[in-house]
Amino acid sequence: MSKIPSTIADYAVLPIAIPPTPAYQVKTTHHVYVRPHAPKLPTVDDSRSLFLVNVPVDSTSPHFRAVFASLVGAGRFESITFENERKNAPSSAVLAIEATRGKKRKRASEADVELDTGLPPTWDRALHKSGSTAVAVFADEKSAEAVLKAIKKLHKSGKGAFPVWGEGLTEKVPKLGSHRYLTHHKMQYPDPDLLRASVDAYMMEFNRKEEEASQKAKRMRNVPDEDGFVTVTRGGRSGPARRDDAETKRLELEEKEEKKRKEMGDFYRFQLRERRKEEQGELVKRFEEDRKRVDAMKEKRGKFRPEK
Fold this sequence. Notes:
- By secondary structure, the protein is α+β, with helices and mostly antiparallel strands.
- The chain has 3 domains: 7-89 and 126-174, RRM (RNA recognition motif) domain (Alpha-Beta Plaits); 200-264, no CATH class; 266-299.
- The chain has 8 helices and 6 strands; from the N terminus they run ββββαβααβααααα.
- It has helices spanning 61-72, 85-88, 97-100, 141-157, 178-187, 192-221, 243-264, 269-303; strands at 7-8, 11-18, 28-36, 49-53, 77-82, 133-138.
- Strands 1-2-3-4-6-5 form a 6-stranded antiparallel beta sheet, covered by helices on one side.
- It is elongated.
- It starts with 6 loop residues before the first strand and ends in a 5-residue tail after the last helix.
- Residues 188-307 form the Ribosomal RNA-processing protein 7 C-terminal domain.
- Residues 227-260 are annotated as: Disordered.
- It comes from Coleophoma cylindrospora.
- This is Ribosomal RNA-processing protein 7.
- InterPro entries: RRM_Rrp7, RRP7, RRP7_C.
């Protein structure tokens, strides 16, 4: 069997031992590729973050917490963000219903942030696409460097020292297999109180946005736009802007446009050429008219015969 390389390109190879499962009763090794996180748009946490490629499909934060704890000890790992976490992350409505009961909820108009209006989830955990990526954040920069050094030591110590995937997490993460689908079936019928809380949050956010739109319409009712037109809105006691205000605004805009045209003049070269051609044509036309007038006077003078 060929030896596992310790690095590939800029990545350190982290081998993880996958124990046998009822579906696949063979022990195998999965490889995660790790390097310092260097995104195109830097953030304050980049120096203490690691970029992971090819994370297992059933990855969770407890899984990687256990893996990094086996490498550098507990207390170094802080958090991890998966590639598809934003799409598949459970709604905050899954929080225990006891956390929402007995607490006075802020009115939507008083909240500085939008409420989570998502419906309760129907899956107890998210799965990832094969070959997905993630970003792990550690307590400090030294902790991230220690992980990379520990990965190099793994290859020297031998196959038996690889971190075991999911070891000690039986009760900390939801089960897969048939249990996952049984749980999915149950979650399709959420607790009525939890469902009501989600619907109430949605309606509160909807009413808040409607109120903002109404207030904006009231403000726009008395303000002419740049062209001097007044927005016509329905409802409310205050009437539209006065006609003389709109007319004054229109005259101001016309004066502004006229001043702008005078300042710009013939800005483009083709405009200068066209203007010169027009001036030359006008001069030639006047010259021809003057010449015809002189010829006519000469002809008239030649026919004149004074009396002797």
